[in-house]
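Q: I'm writing up a methods section and want to include an example of the input and output format. Could you take the sequence below and give the corresponding predicted structure tokens, formatted cleanly so I can copy it straight into the document?
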Amino acid sequence: MGWSINRPTGLTWHNDNLSTKGYTLFTPHGDSHTYLIDIQGRIVHVWKFSDIRPGYGRLLSNGNLLITGSDVDLPDPPKNDPTKPPPPFERHITRLGGYHTTLREVSWEGDTIWEYVNRAQHHDFHRLPNGNTIVPEWVELPQDLHRRVKGGFKEYRERLPRLLGDDLVEINAKGEEVRRLHTWKMLDPIKDPIRPDKRRWEWTHLNGLDINDTGEIVISCRCNDRVCVINDSGEMIWKWDKTHGQHNPTWLKNGNILIFDNGDSSSRVIEVNTSNNEIEWQYKGKPAHQFYSGHISGANALDSGNVLICEGTSGRIFEVNRNQEVVWEWINPFLNHNRYGEASVSIYRAHRYASDHPALKNHDLNPDDYSNLNRTNNLV
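A: Here is the clean output for your methods example:
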């Protein structure tokens, strides 16, 4: 979906009989706020951040918000100059998508409850039932593996940095590492090559993870178009290679996996059965190219069976039912600028929570408390 600064924003479609009631959480790229909106598309709560640039958050069962962020005074990432040596690891990763410095848990009022600082963490996180948290972390591959990994491209005369892979790191409430999984050891450097259109900077680019009740971890590796499942023993037991630049794999209650497949000219959301590798359900645009986000984005199943989709690059959040009907649609009105100064309405992901979610109980979710903000952004 393309967009114009003159396009309609806010709530653009709502079928009250078919939509799933609840509140939607999102953070626009480049913004200093995380927003919660009601089913009418009106802001009912805001978290403001002054010392980090918020990236992506989720509401926890303890009532708090867990969110990624980066330093507000983060230096500009180094430019790619083929005539010069590659920057050191600490600087190189700042120019990669999904880079974060901080994972922070805040209260409803925005007070910091817990914080984990790791300048190699990126993209996603998962809070475990025991209170521990899993995050992906960039690591440099061993030199021999760097040479063996196939695929990707480099610029003429470019002096390549060491290829990066991803570890999954489990940390406890004290920020101490208690477990580490080397996902790059589970892939084949020949059978799982880097996509031809990706630089030889990263092998995997782990941009999403989710964990089911049995401890199985599903991960998305964007740079080589792989969705993989790792069991509780740290073994890769399933691998899917029928997507392109995908994001946000999540477990469904029936054991299937929901995936936002970005695609190269149109996107789709697919439900994959890991037992037979069949696609059991999918959503596409009509026509197909009307639904497209080349990067970021996500999809989450709702309790009603509907699916909430974030078409990230255009800032479009919408809900579809199993018949592929759009039953709710909201367009981001917040125009921000990324760290390169480019205008953006993009949103990494969005989540919807029922009114009885622990984080929402006992709170007065009244849009009138944000009447000026709603009126200014045509959300009334």
